[in-house]
Every structure is written in structure tokens, then in C-alpha cells.
Fold this protein.
Amino acid sequence: MIANLMGGFSAILQPLTLVLMTLGSVWGIVFAAIPGLSTGMAVVLALPLTYGMSSIDGLATLSGIYLGGMSGGLIGSTLLGIPGTASAVATTFDGFPMARAGFPGKAMGIGIWASFFGGIFGAIALVISAPSIARLATRLGPWEYTSLVILGMTMIASLSGKSVPKGFISGILGVIAGTVGSDPIFGATRLTFGLRTLRGGLHFIPVMIGLFAISQLMSDLEKNHAPKQYSGDRLRIPNRESLRTIAGNLRALTVSSLGGLFIGALPGVGASISNIWAYDQVKRMSPRRARFGTGEPEGIIAAEASNSATAGGTLIPMLALGLPGNPISVIMMGAVMIHGITPGPLFISRHADIAYGLFAAFLVVNVLVLLCQLLFTRFYVKVLSVPVRILAPIVIVFCVIGAFAHNNRMSDVYIMLGSGVVGYALNRLGIPLAPAILGLILGPTLEENVRIALMTTNAFTPFVTRPISALFLLLALVSVGVVARERYRERSE
Amino acid sequence: MLVKRSRLSRDSLIGCGTMVLAGLALWDLARTPPRRFGMAVLSSTDYPTAVAWVLLAFGGLLAVTSLFGSAAVPGGGAAPADATAAPAGETAPPVARSITRSAPVLLATIVFIALIPVAGFYPATVIYLGVLVYAALEIPSVALRVLSAAAVAVGTAGVVYLVFDVWLNYFLPRGRIW
């Protein structure tokens, strides 16, 4: 593993790759900092730029965007009191009061350094655990894989918001969309409704751009976030003081990093939950719990360390098992597949150079994000003042490029536009969009494995008689049951 | 109460709409000749057919549960504290929204995409960004507004050209004009 990791570092530590990772980090930070834009959108829109790059350069750039996005949310949360992303909601609780009290630099400093330590923790855990889990997973047959994908799809229940049936409807629509065009075994066309455009199928890139970016932008335009100006001039970040504060709160850092990592590795939950969970846990344990919400450094550390550690956690099941754990890792998985690599148990052994390059990139990117945060804070604050109604058309131009560049076809741009309109309508109807993307990505894998399993044994019984497959199915049932119980409890309260 | 009833019917309509979609998929699959070879248990249409049936079931479930939900609301009973709140099982929009702000941008986007094959990507981009940025800017001086909008439009198109056409050698769609 060490030799592979060293090889990964030598591939990553090239001047061009470092520049691309730095640009990716800045891109991710900017998108996460602006309320209304998101990390997922940043990854999706950068995809066309990575087409022409080598796999390692492309994935390293995307890692920069992902981790930059995880860290960048703290800028809006701390300086404006508006979380740029859901993963930075808890940062607002103490970051904003501290900034408002006249210490914006200190609040930013604590957040940036806590985010760095949390990110490094998540990256190390990813490097250590993903190869071992993948080795175990290579023993799985199509029956186990089918059940594993079903287990992964139970995260639909967690992503469903308030209405589980609507979440499942969205997920199943995604699965159906994944079956449009040629079938994976015989190549026979289906569900094209006689339209030639649909014969090639609905590829997830244009659909994803439409569903995530276009529909989200339309919703943001409706909300019309007013541009905010930060009037403070004390943005100098006191690094020594920030590090001393973190050193004095090592327990908060450890608990939130560990919590963020485990929550990230679970299907269906992610940084949007981990930051609030960690904040709550650290608050309970703290002797200064009464000061939480008034600018307590422990609160900022908890929120930022946990959301950055989650980034590494979400990539563990994605790279080792081919199961994305949350919407952003769904997008990351799609991005990896664009580069001709299918994440799963064999990915790390067959493409060790790329896998370890990605691990090395994850470690290096944490340092780059730290530098980008420390050096360009004033630039991000300027960008925050640009209203969404001006940003939206520019972002849409990049959406068109992204959809077209995938296959050099205008029909993909039309599919993106159609998906955007559908996504906007679903959004207005209160139907969550993340399950649809999950269904679109996991649906074809499910079909392929079910059909191969049935071709091998000609019976459904092995799905429940093979112990590991039965275990996955049982876990899937438990997972849905737990969510259903939670929803029932919420309603009865 | 009227507002409440219209909200209650929303999920029923979504459920019915889902059933219609599932029905359409099942109809198209039924008229598609299935392909099956050798040992294959499932034909090319069996899996999507099964998924469409599941979609139909969930659509029905949503329609039925929301109908039961509306029936359970006491007609003459005590009104809930928040009369505008969505009933159980329904997901209300989180904030007040105005479609008047998003619809023009969506419409302009449709025109922009339709214009690409005719005018080409770069002219269409300059027109699209120029118009929308001009409309979005809140500068009193018309001349300054035009200049700013033109700068954003031409600047963005220029950066895209430099990155894609010049640096990445990646050619974006050309139209009949350019």
C-alpha cells in the first residue's frame, strides 16, 4: 500500500496537476460560499473541463472541488450568517456570532483550520480502509451485488424529505430513466416511444446537470437572495491563535472528525447531518455548553471538522463498493465513470495507479484548500456580493457546455433542458431530486446483476439463501424500517 | 378550508400523474417486442416492466394515502394552529416563492438553446447573457447598464473561447451564422 501511495504522490505532485487542484479548490470554495450555488453544482459544471484531461488530473481536480466545497461553506456561514451549503449550517450557530462580535478573522481561522484537520482525518481513513473493504467485496457474486445495490437504494428513504412515497417515486423514475435506450445484455431498445433521440439512452450527465443545476438555479431565482455586503475590515486570520484554540479543544476535534467520518460512510446521510450531529454532541460534552450559540470556538470546530471528515467517509463505500453514500458522492461517482472507470470492488486492484493517485490527491488537496482559504479570503467575500440573478445565466451557459461536451451532441443539451424543466416541476411539487439521480446511476447496475444472477442459476432463491446476500437484504429492510419509524415518530409528535 | 382542500389534492394529483406515467411506460413496453436468448430468464423488457409496475404501485399508494389523509381531517373540527401549513404527508414549499422571477430566465434559456444551432454557441451566448444581465443589473444609467451587460456577456464568451477552443481544442457548436 505504501509503495502504491508513493506512486500516487509522484503522479499528483506534478506542476500542472497541482495548478488544476488549486483551481478546483478555489472553484469549489466559491460555489459553496455563495448561497444558492452548491458543491454538487460545482462538480457537475467542472466536468466538461476534465474531459480533455488524464484520469488522474481530472479526478484530482474534482477532489479539489469536492473538498473546497466542503470547506467553503463556512465563509457564508461565518461572515453573512447564511450557510452556503447544508453542510455548514451548524457553523452559523457560533461562527456568525463570533464574526458579529468583531472577530471575523478569528472565526474564519478556527473554521479553516478545523476543516483542514477534519479533512486530513477523513483522507487518512479513506486510504487505510477503502482497499481492505474492496478486497473483501471482490468475493461477492451477482446475487450479493444485487442485494448490495438494493441496500444502497434504501438510502432513497433517507433522502426523501418529509414524504417517503414521493422519494420512492423520484427514485423509481430515475431507475426507469436508466432503462431508456439499449438494454445492457442484448442491446435491444426499449422505452424510446419511437423517438430517435432516446435510442442512445438518457445518460446521467445531461440529466444530472438538468436536475441539479438548472432546477436548483430556478428555485434560487424564485427565492431571490439579496446580495449582502460584509462591512468588516478585520479579515486578517490569526493562524497561531486559531491553532492554539484548536489545540485546546482536541476532544471536540476528535469526536467531530470521527463522527463525521462514520456518518459519511453510512448510506443516505452526509455532511448536512454530520455537522449538526457533531455540534450537538460536542455541546453536550462541553463544560461551556451554555456559551454555545454566542460565538463559542468549540461549536465552530465541531461543525467544520465533521463536515470535512465526512468527505473522506462518503468516498469509502463509493470507491470500495461502487455505492455512493450521498448526492455529492453520486455526482462524484458519475464523474469517475466519465473517465472510463467504474468504482467498485475491482477498481482499487485493477486501477491501483488511479485509485492511489486519487487517495494522494485527497491528502494533498486538503493542504491546497487550506492555503486557498487562508490566502484568498478577501476575494471570496467580494464574490459573495454578486447576486444570484446575475450568476444564474452565466452558470446556465456552463450547463449547456457541460451537456454538449459530453458527447458533442445537441440532443444532450435538449435532454438537459428537459431534465431541468422536469426537475423544476418536481421541486415545486415537493418531490426530492436526489433519489432520481441515485436511481439513474444504480438502476443499470441493478438490472445487469439481477439478469446475470438469473442467467447463472435460473432461480430467485439464491438471493435469500446465500448468507451475505441475505444479510444485505436484511440490512436493507432494517434501514427502511428505521427511517419509517423515525418518520412515524416525527408525525405523532 | 378551501386553501386546505386544494393542498390536500396536490399529492393525490401527483399520485395519479405518476400512475399515468407508469401506464405510458407499460404501454410502450407492451408494444416493444421482447428479446430473449438461450438461458436468459428475463427478456429485454421484463426488468423495466417490473420497475414500471412498482412505479404504478407507489403512485397508487401516494394517491390513496393522501386521500385517506384528507378524509381524516375533521370537517367541522378544530382548525390547526397554522391554517396555511401543509397537512401530514404533504411537503410544503419551504419559503414563499415567486415564479415571475424564474419563468423569464427559463424562457430565455429555452430561446438560447434553440438559437445555438442557428446562430452558433458564441453569438447565442453573447445575446443571452447580454439580455439577462442587462435586466438583472440595477444601475440607473442606461449607458452604463448596457456597457456592463456587454462586458459580462463578451467577457464570459471570451473566457469560454480561450479555455475550450484555444486551450482544450474543444469546439463548441457552430451555427449557420458563426
Notes: Residues 2-492 of chain A form one domain. Chain A touches chain B through 64 residues (CB under 8 Å). The first strand of chain A starts at residue 181 and ends at 182.
